[in-house]
Each structure stands twice: as structure tokens, then as C-alpha cells.
């Protein structure tokens, strides 16, 4: 399917030009780079800042619920992933996922190197007193630095694998649902893709990270994965109106609506194509 006449009515009378996924992959978009940066920044910050803290919030009729603080913002990367696929197509979303993947690996490498560099003794032993849960706690700098930025190899492996698989599933499901629904009912594919994407993410991360670890039983891991999946999916539902606004604004300014009816959905499609193309 080639690019349509810009004056055509487009989808549901939107006035947008309908183009296929391959045309979208070759097209220059005004705001794509900004969305790419937002995607990578939120991904890195949610893993760097949020992952180190265990939060606890009490809910009426439920009681205290413990969760990783990163769950508050990490799902936003899935929402941006939805926007990227919906507005720019699967091929461009695939680029963003790979950029995020390698950025995440570099962040891990940088964290390991910086944490393991021998610290100045005067700085490492310097202490400050903090109030945590009503108690005064004294934390030497190096210990506090390691607790925040230190990387556990198993957790890193689980996080990277879960992100990679979950994001690609999320993008694939949304792209296929868009073609099936002919671009109607955006909420069904943003929520539906998140259900599958976050489901794969949670199903991979928690067993890979904690199965066999003291204090974690298969039942507690399954319950933790289910809880995180529900919270992340709930965020998608809550932010659906925001997704509608962002998608509508971007489509209007880009002037096209991308349908992935002619695209290779393999995560490695561009890599193979590039390798096969002579210099």
C-alpha cells in the first residue's frame, strides 16, 4: 500500500494520508526523535532510580502493598511504545526498542564500572544521618552508593530480557490489532497490547530474577508477577485519555496514519537486510 493522496479523507474522516509500514519506515517525521528520546530517558530512569527502592503504600480495605518504586514510571515506557507504534509504525518502534536495549546495557556497564572503582577512603567513610521510617540511620557514602547504583547480574539479565521481549510483543500486538480494527477503537489496542506486553515482561522478569532465591517461593513469585502486571496494566487504563491526546496531536502534525500491512515483524529484520546489502 503506497502513500495516499493527502487530500483523501483518511481514517474515520481524519484527513490523514494512509501509508503502509514500509513507507513509514523510510519517511522522515518531525517529532519522532523527540519520542525516541522520551522513551529512552523514561526507560533508563525507571530502571536506575525506581528499581533501587522498595515502596509500601496502604490502601483502604486492602492494607499495605509493597512494590518496586519503578513500577510507577516504567509502564510509561510502554505507553510511549504504544504511541510510537500507533503513530510511526512497527518498523520505527523497532528502532526505538533496540536503541533502548543498548542504552540499558550501557547504563548497566557504566554503573558496574563506577561502583567498582576504588573509592577515596575519606569520602567512602563519610557518614550522614537520615531519618527513615521514624528512625535515625547512619549510612557511609560507599555503602549507600552501592545500594542505589550497584547492579546484581541476575537482576540485570532478567530486566534486559523482560524489557526486550515485552516491548516487542507490545508493539507487534498493537500493530496487528490496528490493521484488524482498521484504525478504529484505539483504546482496545493500547490496552490489549499492554496486557500481552506487560504480561510477558512480568512472566519473564520475576522467575528469572528470583526463582530459587531464599525467601522467594514459586507461589510468592507468581503473586508478585501478577500484582505488578495488574498495576502496570492499570496505569495504561488510567492514562488512556492522555494517550488519545498525544496520538491525535502527533498524527495531526505528521499528517499520516501508518498501517503495518506490509512489514517484516522480526525484531532482527533490519539487521539482516543491512547485512545482505553490499557496500
In short:
This protein is mainly alpha-helical and 279 residues long.
Description:
The structure is a single chain. The protein is mostly helical and 279 residues long. 64% of the residues lie in helices and 11% in strands. It is built from eleven helices and six strands. It has helices at 21-26, 32-50, 74-88, 90-116, 121-125, 141-149, 153-180, 186-210, 218-238, 240-254, 269-276; strands at 17-20, 54-59, 63-68, 127-132, 135-140, 256-259. The strands form three sheets. Strands 1-6 form a two-stranded parallel sheet. Strands 2-3 form a two-stranded antiparallel ribbon. The chain has a two-stranded antiparallel ribbon with strand order 4-5. β4 (127-132) and β5 form a beta hairpin. α3 packs antiparallel against α4 and α8 runs antiparallel to α9 (218-238). The longest helix has 28 residues, at 153-180. The protein is globular and about 65 Å long. The model is unreliable at 1-13 and 271-279 (pLDDT under 50).
Strand content: 5-15%
State the separation between the terminal residues, measured CA to CA.
29 Å
Please give the count of helices.
Answer: 11
Helix content: 55-70%
Structural class category: mainly alpha
Mean residue pLDDT? 83
Order of helices and strands: EHHEEHHHEEHHHHHEH
Q: Would you report the number of β strands?
A: 6
Strand order of the largest sheet: 1-6
Amino acid at each position: 500500500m503506497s502513500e495516499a493522496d493527502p487530500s483523501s479523507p483518511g481514517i474515520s474522516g481524519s484527513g490523514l494520508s494512509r501509508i503502509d509500514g514500509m513507507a513509514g519506515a523510510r519517511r522522515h517525521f518531525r517529532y519522532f526523535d523527540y519520542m525516541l528520546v522520551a522513551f529512552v530517558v523514561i526507560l533508563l530512569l525507571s530502571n536506575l532510580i525506581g528499581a533501587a527502592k522498595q515502596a509500601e503504600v496502604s490502601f483502604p480495605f486492602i492494607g499495605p502493598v509493597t512494590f518496586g518504586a519503578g513500577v510507577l514510571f516504567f509502564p510509561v515506557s510502554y505507553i510511549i511504545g504504544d504511541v510510537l507504534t500507533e503513530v510511526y509504525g512497527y518498523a520505527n518502534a523497532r528502532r526505538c526498542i533496540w536503541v533502548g536495549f543498548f542504552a540499558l546495557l550501557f547504563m548497566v556497564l557504566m554503573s558496574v564500572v563506577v561502583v567498582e572503582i576504588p573509592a577515596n577512603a575519606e569520602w567512602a567513610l563519610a557518614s550522614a544521618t537520615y531519618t527513615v521510617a521514624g528512625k535515625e540511620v547512619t549510612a557511609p557514602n560507599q555503602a549507600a552508593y552501592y545500594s542505589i547504583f550497584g547492579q546484581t547480574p541476575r537482576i540485570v539479565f532478567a530486566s534486559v530480557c523482560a524489557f526486550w521481549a515485552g516491548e516487542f510483543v507490545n508493539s507487534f500486538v498493537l500493530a496487528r490489532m490496528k490493521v484488524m480494527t482498521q484504525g478504529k477503537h484505539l483504546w482496545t489496542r493500547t490496552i490489549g497490547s499492554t496486557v500481552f506486553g506487560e504480561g510477558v515482561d512480568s512472566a519473564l522478569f520475576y522467575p528469572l530474577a528470583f526463582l530459587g532465591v531464599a525467601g522467594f517461593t514459586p507461589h510468592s513469585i507468581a503473586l508478585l508477577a501478577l500484582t505488578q502486571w495488574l498495576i502496570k496494566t492499570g496505569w495504561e487504563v488510567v492514562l488512556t485519555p492522555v494517550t488519545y491526546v498525544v496520538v491525535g496531536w502527533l498524527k495531526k502534525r505528521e499528517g499520516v496514519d501508518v498501517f503495518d500491512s506490509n512489514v517484516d515483524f522480526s525484531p532482527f529484520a533490519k539487521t539482516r537486510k543491512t547485512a545482505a546489502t553490499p557496500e
